[in-house]
Amino acid sequence: MRNWNYKQGNKRCRECYCFLSKKNWHKRQQQRGDLLCHDCYKAWLKDYHESNKETRLEKQRKYRRENNKHVNQLVRESRKGNPKVKLARSVYRLVLYEFGRRNLDGVWKYLPYTSPQLWEYLEATIPAGYTIQDWIDGTLQLDHIKERKDFTFNKPTDQGFQDCWAMSNLRLLPKHINAARPNKVKA
User: Fold this and answer.
1) Nearest CA to 170 among 122, 135, 133?
2) 42 lies in which domain range?
3) Separation in Å, CA 148 to CA 64, 98, 145, 159, 169
4) What's the confidence (pLDDT) of residue 9?
5) Inter-CA distances, 95 with 8, 10, 168, 173, Å
6) 107, 135: one domain
7) d(Cα 14, Cα 33) in Å, to the nearest integer?
8) Considering 75, 94, 110, which residue would you say is the last residue of a domain?
9) Separation CA 28–CA 16 (nearest Å)
10) Are residues 69 and 91 in the same domain?
11) How confident is the model at residue 98 (pLDDT cuts 50, 70, 90)?
């Protein structure tokens, strides 16, 4: 069987037998010459992953165990200097503090906004003369305009919690100004 249509410069897929141009072939297939079009390769890959799920997961677990320090170092490096990661971790820690460090199964599901939405809002509250790098370095802090102690709530679904963590009640404030505010709740 011929796999090439030489007049048009196309290849024939070994699964669907269609002739397709080079742009319709999966990149890996172009390199290996397996002759599966993009759609057939995606279907094969999905089937492969489903039928070898346990084997793949065990390989991942084994790699993680054997290279734990290296993997953790890579994760730390990818998080360092990322203001969105810092924001997510700060909110997570503060919300856990409110509830005595009980496991909340991800705090974002209790908030009426997502992490990217909050970040976009907070970027607009950066005081003049400060940059995102100041947030990363710790010069700016996440601040509640109306203090957390002024709200009454026992669980994340209470209205007091929603009002406390509303975006309109949050801002970025320089550390020295935030610390000088009276009656701060120490987290």
Assistant:
1) 122
2) 4-75
3) 40, 9, 9, 13, 10
4) 62
5) 62, 58, 17, 19
6) yes
7) 11
8) 75
9) 18
10) no
11) low
| Rounded Cα distance, 61 and 66, in Å | 9
Tell me the Ramachandran region of residue 11: left when phi exceeds 0, alpha when psi lies from -120 to 50, beta otherwise: beta
Residues 115 and 88 sit within 8 Å (Cβ to Cβ)? yes
Both structure tokens of 109: 């599901």
Contact 68, 76 (CB under 8 A): no
Q: Is residue 84 a contact partner of residue 119, using CB atoms and an 8 Å limit?
A: yes
pTM of the model: 0.50
119-157, pLDDT tens digit by residue? Answer: 888 888 889 999 888 877 888 888 888 887 788 877 777
Backbone angles phi, psi at 10, to 5 degrees: -105, 160
**Which H helix or E strand runs over 172?**
strand 170-174
